[in-house]
Every structure is written in C-alpha cells, then in structure tokens.
Amino acid sequence: MEVPEQDALHDAGHDAGHMARAVALAARGHGTTSPNPVVGCVVLDAGGAVAGEGFHAYAGGPHAEVVALAQAGERARGGTAYVTLEPCDHTGRTGPCSRALLDAGIARVVVAVADPNPRAAGGAARLRAAGVAVTTGVLAAEAERVNEEWLTYARLGRAHVTWKFAATLDGRSAAEDGTSKWITSPQARADVHRLRAAADAIVAGVGTVLADDPHLTARPAPAPDAAPDAAPGAVVSGAALPDAAAPGTAGTAGTAGAGGGPLRVVVDSDARTPPDARVLDDEAPTLLAVAADAGTGHLPPKTDVLRLPRYGSGLDLRALLTELAAREVVSVFLEGGPTLAGAFLREGLIDRVVAYVAPALLGSGRAALGPAGVSTIGALHRLTFEEISPIGPDIRLIARPIAQPSREQ
Description:
single chain; alpha/beta; Cytidine Deaminase, domain 2; Dihydrofolate Reductase, subunit A; 2 domains; 10-stranded mixed beta sheet; 5-stranded mixed beta sheet; 10 helices; elongated
C-alpha cells in the first residue's frame, strides 16, 4: 500500500529528529577516537520510543551501536537504529556492528553516511540481505561535517588540516620587530589549547621554532570566559567547531600516543632546528620533517626524522600528510608562520580555518598569511563562514575553503 504523502513527510521529519540526536552524540567523541571515526547511535523500540543511545568514545572501545543496543536491551527487538556512519561489517578491535544489530533483532536501520573504508563497508548490504529495512542519506551533510576529519583521512588518504592563526583587525600576526605576544586574550589562548588537544598532530614551520622556540604542546585548562561553542548572540552558519577533548584524552593516534599529547611536527627542509629547541623535549612526541638530502647529524639521537622530497622552496606537503596518515594521524592543527600556511593553502591542503581576531591595529608588521599562489583577484581563495563567535574580547572565525575545480576535492 502506498504511503500517503503527509505520512512520508512525517516519517522524514521523524527520522531527521532522531538522526540529529545521533549527530550530537557523535560529536562527543571528538579528540578521543582517532584513528577511528566519531559515530553516534540512537535506538528506538518497536513503539517508537527511545530505548538506547551511544557514541564511540575511544579507539578500541565499543562502537556507538553496541553501546546503544546494550542500553536498550530487549527493547531493541523490532525497533529502529539511527547511525551517523554505516555500521561496520568487519572484525577489528571489536566485532562487526552489522552482526550486533542483527543479533539484537533490529527491524530498521537509518544511516546518514556510507562508510568509505573498503575494509569496514558492507554493513548496509548485509542488513538488507537479512531482511532489515535500511534507509540511507538522512542528515548526510550534518553527519559528514561532524566526522569530517576521519572522512578526509578515509577518502583522500591524508590527514585533515585545520589552519589556526591569531591576528589584529588589520590582519597582522606580529609587529615590525617580530613581537607577537600577546595579540589575543587569555580566553582565546585557552580556546586554542583545547582545540590543540583534540588534534592528533600540531604542525609548525622551522621559522616559528627559530623565532619563538615554542613547546607546541596542548595545555588545556578551564577558562571561565572562553566559549568553545558559539556564544549567545554569535552569528552562526552551519555546524560549530566541536568541543575539544578533555585534558589527558588526546594523543590516541599512532605516534601521537607516546609521551602524552598530540604529535608535534616541525616542517624543516634543511634541518635547521637547534638540538636544544623546546620542541625536541620530552613533553610530547616530535617528528622532524626534513628534505631527503638534509644533514641531521647535529640532532639528538632520539629525534624522529621523516625525510620527504623537496617541492619548490620547501617540502612536498601532500607527501607529509600522506605519511602522517600512515602513522594514523587523522587530524592536523597547523600553526605558526605565514610561509608554511601559504604553502598549504596554495596546494589546496587546508580544510578548515580557525582565526582569532583581536580588536587591535598595527598598520605594519608580519601578515598572517604568506604567498598562497594568487597573482590576480580572480584566483583568490574563497571561503565560507561557518561560525563567528566572541571569545573574551576577541572574535573567533571558523571558515572553510569553497571547493573549486582546480583544487583538491
């Protein structure tokens, strides 16, 4: 019997509402699931009441479906499961979620995004083959956005890149004498540390190391006036940047797991990093990316060196992101230096921009962004704003490049 149009619309709205909840649950896993995706799940009983909820909390832990099904218990039989990512169909650290849903007696599964990982995909097909009704594509855009780091990693085989910078209202990141501490407020700096903690790796250029001798570590701490989510009155378009992980929960990916914190990566073509640089201390693991022909004899013996091909005046950044992905680095937080930022942007390798803008003016000094391959106005890099939020006295802007045919998709 054909479903009346108004009933179909009601069902679509019903599905969207529960999937929105699943997306919100998935966001709770940010910063702790790498190299796994963030996933949320809502289970309804046969009568349509919520019986269980869950999200993937940490790599190696139970998947969202398993958590929600355990909460639902026998109420799951004959019910519906809403999942932000197609249930996996393989055995890794845990068993296949497709089998768990079948064993629980779920009658219908609603999926937002198909799994692009060929090793794990196939859950929807298995469920359909077993007689389970499967609906796909519900709130796909929202589910993709909340899981964008992992989807970039799975689809493109490289780490997802968020470029962060702090600047004055006229776009200056340092004064003429090179000083830059502090352009933004303590609240903005605390927010940066929370976002750092949610990344698998923090990347900076050797110029920043030589100029500032930074630690490049994540030191998140409570900041009463900080606003990691859009504050009341903020102008928001799309999904806000998710909250970062709590202190001590970051650093679960590959090399980043040793030493307590995100992996520190220094892009240093000619291996100019001093042997006593703070970025080489034991506070967090460090990877020094150098050219294949660079001399590294002056570095401490324990230094982890990655040799990459030269590309122009620097290194092959696409190769860097691919190598990081091979180390199970899903998300990169790019900091420090207009030259490196310009190179990443020129190669189409920036996926998201987080800018902290202070209500201050310099009039001269170092620009936040260096040459980015733009010689005429028609070639400028267009972005779209996703969030505009106050952070203490400053403003946090979140934007992402608009896909262009000549750049990486």
